[in-house]
Write a structure and sequence with these properties.
The complex is a heterodimer of chains A (about 220) and B (about 45).
Chain A: H1 2-25, H2 39-66, H3 69-101, H4 109-128, H5 134-148, H6 151-161, H7 177-214, H8 216-219
Chain B: H1 3-36
The chains are: A mainly alpha (about 220), B mainly alpha (about 45).
Chain lengths: ~220, ~45
């Protein structure tokens, strides 16, 4: 509990500091101007989406091998974090696109594959809600968690495979030193924040599962 | 168009999204705690 609180405090502090630096300290980009500051949330949310779905893939594999429901709880916790991150990536990306590309949305390969990624994992959550048997639910979800992961490298490589309006992936190494450092700071801050959320979601999942396994008498 | 508005919208939606998900978790936690805050059986 104390560790969780410490991470929670660290999450709020680091996001506040990183956002302040990204918004007010680092200078605006020479070509894109102030709007480039959206990159400091767009890239971290995209990175967290990919990381979450990698965790889902690994936990799904572990579940199918060991058949322990704790792996399924971890997988669904990561899916919720991934869905939130992907949705935020698309929304912030759309707000970034309007002033830079002149459009809110286009059926560009990167945008389209990312939207498909979101649909796949929303589907994962819908499928879970279709059965009340924890074992069957975990089995179905694990299969989707493994097959759905194929979409992650497709999203990442889409800007290289097809002619895309979207720029190649931005990272602290691909940017000028000062901007790269601020991006790295935001990446760390949002990773801590989403890790905190994932930890709470996992604990909640365990508690809900314990209630479910205890049967209807306990649920009254 | 004013870039500041887009910045406010972008950061605002991002933070609201995170806080809304956190509130959703808290609500579910309270619901689960009201029933039985026990993790026994989860690893089986």
């Amino acid at each position: 509990m104390k560790t969780q609180r410490t991470i929670g405090f660290l999450a709020i502090t680091s996001v506040a500091v990183a956002s302040f630096i990204g918004l007010f300290v680092v200078p605006a980009d020479e070509y894109q101007g102030e709007i480039q500051r959206l990159l400091y949330i767009h890239v971290p949310t995209a990175w967290l989406a990919m990381l979450s779905f990698l965790v889902v893939f690994l936990m799904s594999m572990l579940y199918l091998v060991q058949r322990k429901l704790k792996w399924d709880v971890l997988a669904v916790s990561a899916v919720e974090i991934g869905v939130l991150s992907t949705a935020l990536t698309l929304i912030v990306g759309s707000l970034y696109a309007r002033p830079t590309w002149g459009i809110w949305w286009t059926w560009d390969p990167r945008l389209t594959t990312t939207a498909l990624l979101l649909i796949i994992y929303i589907g994962y959550l819908i499928v879970r809600s279709m059965t009340e048997d924890p074992e069957q639910r975990a089995r179905w979800a694990a299969v989707i968690g493994i097959i759905g992961f194929i979409q992650v490298p497709i999203v990442y490589l889409s800007v290289f495979w097809w002619r895309s309006l979207h720029q190649p992936p931005s990272s602290p190494r691909s940017m000028a030193a000062g901007f790269g450092l601020v991006l790295l700071l935001n990446l760390i801050a949002y990773t801590i924040a989403f890790t905190y959320l994932a930890m709470r979601r996992y604990k909640l999942g365990q508690a809900e599962l314990a209630l479910e396994l205890a049967g209807p008498e306990e649920e009254k | 168009m004013n870039h500041t508005l887009f910045l406010i919208a972008g950061y605002g939606i991002c933070w609201i999204g995170i806080v809304a998900y956190f509130s959703h978790l808290r609500k579910r936690e309270r619901h689960a705690t009201g029933k039985n805050w026990s993790c026994e059986g989860a690893d089986e």
